[in-house]
Design a protein that fits this description.
Oligomer: single chain
Bound molecules: coenzyme A, zinc ion
Number of domains: 1
Helix content: 40-55%
Structural class: alpha/beta
CATH topology: TIM Barrel
Strand order of the largest sheet: 2-3-4-5-6-7-8-9
Radius of gyration: 17 Å
Largest sheet: 8 strands, parallel, barrel
Number of strands: 10
Strand content: 15-25%
CATH class: Alpha Beta
Number of helices: 11
Shape: globular
Length: 286
C-alpha cells in the first residue's frame, strides 16, 4: 500500500486573501464544494482576521456557517483572541494561529510583538474548549528583509512554545519563498528535534522554483502534510513580493510520481483550477 500524504488545500484562504475584487460568498462556497468533490480532505476555508486589512476574508462567519458538516476537515486562520472568539462562535473545528519568525513581518502582519502573540496563544489554548490548534510560523525559512537572519533555534523555540501550550501540529510557512533544500533540512530537523514527535506540516511558496526539491527534502525527514493552492495562487499581503503558494496539482503529481497517495482527483482539480481562473478573470476590476 502506498504511504499517505495529506495535502491541506489553502486556495479559499491563502489563494484568495489578496485578490482585490470581491469574490462573493457563493463563489467561495462553490470553490470549496469543488475541492470536496476532488476529494480534498483538509481545507483551510477562511481567516478570522481584520476585515479592514483583509477585506476578502470579511465573510469568514458566513463561509464557515454554510459548510456541509463532515464533508472535509475545515480549518480557519486566526491572528489573535478576537479571531478565536469569532471562529468559536461558528464552531470551527481546526484553527491555524499565526506568528512570524521575522520580527518585522510579525509586526506588519499581526501588529504586535511575538511574545504577546505567543502569550495570547497560551491563553486561548488553555481554554481547551473545542478547536484543535495548529501553530503556524511564518517566515520560518527566511525573512523578506535583508537585515534579518532567521535562526533555526528561533524557529525551534517558537515551535516548542506552541507544543508546550498544547498545539496539535506546527506549520512551518515559507511566506516569502526563501526555502532551499539545505534550509529545509536544517529548519525542519531542528523543529522536529524540539517537538519530539508532534507533527510538522510545511507551507511552501515557490519563488525560487525549488518547490519540488524542497518537498522531497521535507518528505525524506518524515513530513507528511503539505499545504498548497490551485494555480499557485496566493501570498501574504503583508510581506513584500510574497510569491504564490505551491501549486496543488503540481504537488499532487510529484507525490504520485514518488509513490505517495494523496487521494486527490487530479482531473477534478484541473477542472476547478480552470473554472477558478475564469471566475477571477471575469470579476470587475477596481
Ligand atoms: N477579526 C476582526 N476584527 C478584529 C480582529 C479579528 N481577529 N482583531 C481585532 N479586530 C478589530 C478590533 O475589534 C478593532 O476594531 P474597532 O476599531 O472597531 O474596535 C480593530 O480591529 C483594531 O483592533 P487591534 O487589536 O488594535 O488590531 P490591529 O489593528 O492591531 O490589527 C490584527 C491586528 C491581528 C487584527 C490584524 O493585523 C490582522 O487581521 N492581521 C492578519 C493579517 C493576515 O490576514 N495576514 C495573512 C495571513 S497570515
Ligand atoms: Zn502562504
Amino acid at each position: 500500500m502506498k504511504a499517505r500524504v495529506d495535502i491541506v488545500e489553502v486556495t479559499p484562504r491563502d489563494g484568495l486573501q489578496d485578490v482585490k475584487p470581491w469574490v462573493d460568498t457563493a463563489t467561495k462556497m462553490e470553490l470549496i464544494q469543488r475541492l470536496v468533490e476532488a476529494h480534498a480532505t483538509w481545507i483551510e476555508v477562511t481567516a478570522f482576521v481584520s476585515p479592514v486589512l483583509v477585506p476578502q476574508m470579511a465573510d469568514a462567519e458566513d463561509v464557515m456557517a454554510q459548510l456541509p458538516e463532515g464533508a472535509a476537515e475545515w480549518i480557519g486562520l486566526i491572528p489573535n483572541l478576537r479571531g478565536y472568539e469569532r471562529a468559536r462562535r461558528v464552531r470551527t473545528r481546526h484553527l491555524t494561529y499565526v506568528v512570524s519568525a521575522s520580527p518585522r513581518h510579525q509586526q506588519d502582519n499581526v501588529r504586535r510583538p511575538l511574545s504577546t502573540s505567543l502569550q495570547e496563544f497560551g491563553q486561548l489554548a488553555a481554554r481547551q474548549d473545542g478547536p484543535a490548534l495548529r501553530g503556524a510560523i511564518s517566515c520560518a525559512f527566511g525573512s523578506p528583509y535583508a537585515e534579518e537572519v532567521i535562526h533555526p533555534q528561533t524557529v525551534a523555540a517558537i515551535a516548542r512554545q506552541y507544543r508546550d501550550y498544547g498545539a496539535a501540529e506546527v506549520v512551518l510557512a515559507d511566506t516569502v519563498g526563501a526555502a532551499t533544500p539545505d534550509v529545509v533540512r536544517t529548519i525542519v530537523a531542528k523543529v522536529q528535534d524540539a517537538l519530539g514527535g508532534l507533527p510538522v506540516a510545511v507551507h511552501f511558496h515557490d519563488r525560487l522554483r525549488q518547490g519540488r526539491e524542497n518537498v522531497r527534502e521535507a518528505l525524506a525527514l518524515g513530513v507528511r502534510r503539505f499545504e498548497a493552492a490551485l494555480a499557485g495562487l496566493g501570498g501574504c499581503p503583508f510581506a513584500p513580493q510574497a510569491p504564490g503558494n505551491l501549486n496543488t496539482i503540481r504537488l499532487a503529481t510529484w507525490l504520485d510520481e514518488w509513490g505517495y497517495e494523496t487521494g486527490l482527483d487530479l482531473f477534478r482539480l484541473e477542472a476547478t483550477e480552470k473554472w477558478l481562473g475564469q471566475v477571477l478573470a471575469l470579476l470587475p476590476q477596481g
